[in-house]
Design goal:
Blueprint: H1 4-7, H2 10-34, H3 43-135
Keywords: Coiled coil
Coiled coil: 95-129
Length: 136
């Protein structure tokens, strides 16, 4: 190691050291006033980049929320349509059952009409026989 005190006189060394410290302080003051950090990027520029990053993150979060909202609305609509479909299916089933019941009642009514007609014919025949029996 070199001992700088032996290379320069103590007074020169003190002056040099004072100049170095003054230069360093001046550079620090200029750096602080200019807003430039040691990396060379200004604090203002760094702040703008961070704000831009925050705005970008906020926009992405909004887009994600809109997408989720769209999905939820779609799911709700599908559920609603599903419920409507269930109601329509039940109505169709009820209509089909009612139609079957009506067809069954119509068949029963036809059978009853035939039986009534047969009964009427039988009663008419019995009446004719009774009239013949009474006339003898």
């Amino acid at each position: 190691p070199v001992c700088w005190e032996n290379v320069a006189e103590p007074e020169e060394f003190a002056k040099s050291r004072l100049l170095v410290l003054q230069n360093r302080a001046a550079l620090q003051a200029v750096s602080t006033l200019s807003g430039v950090e040691d990396t060379g990027v200004s604090y203002n520029h760094q702040a703008r980049q961070e704000v831009q990053g925050i705005l970008s993150d906020h926009q992405k979060a909004q887009e994600a929320m809109q997408t989720m909202e769209t999905v939820f609305v779609s799911l709700q609509q599908k559920r609603k349509e599903g419920k409507e479909q269930v109601v329509l299916t039940r109505l169709k089933d009820r209509l089909a059952n009612t139609r079957d019941d009506l067809d069954g009642r119509e068949r029963s009514a036809s059978n009853l009409e035939r039986q009534f007609s047969t009964l009427e014919q039988n009663l008419f025949n019995i009446q004719l026989r009774l009239v013949k029996l009474i006339q003898r």
